[in-house]
Description:
Distance between the termini: 31 Å
Number of domains: 1
Mean pLDDT: 92
Strand order of the largest sheet: 1-5-4-3-2
Oligomer: single chain
CATH class: Alpha Beta
Order of helices and strands: EHHEEEE
Helix content: 10-25%
Low-confidence stretches: none
CATH architecture: 2-Layer Sandwich
Amino acid sequence: MASGRYEIRLARRALRSLSGLQQRDQQRVASVIDLLADNPRPPGCIALQGETGVYRVRVGDYRIVYEVMDQILIVQVVRIGHRRDVYR
Length: 88
């Protein structure tokens, strides 16, 4: 496993979803995304079935789905959404 700080990249879709959240939820989700730079696999993160290197983390009723690329130290946030919608 590589050590060091990961670069965070947000997909256009994730950025749109984040900007659509209420201010309080935006701040909570953004702070968790920032923490992924230091630890891309925090306690409570779940590896998604069927896709290698893809994880999700809970933030209240919201989910952050992201991909970890250890070789190049990048965390790509793919989707952000309410738990009822994010996996569709």
